[in-house]
Amino acid sequence: MINVVEFFRNLPKKKCHQCGQAMHEKADCYGNLCDECDHPAR
Length: 42
Known about the structure:
The protein is mostly loops. The chain has one helix spanning about 5-10.
């Protein structure tokens, strides 16, 4: 059986749904857009 920590460590990086760039994940965020694509001025 795989260790839980290893499981989460081996998950692929989360990518922005709009532009495809790897996202810097935040602990309290479940969004699928990066900060650049989710900027209110866009």
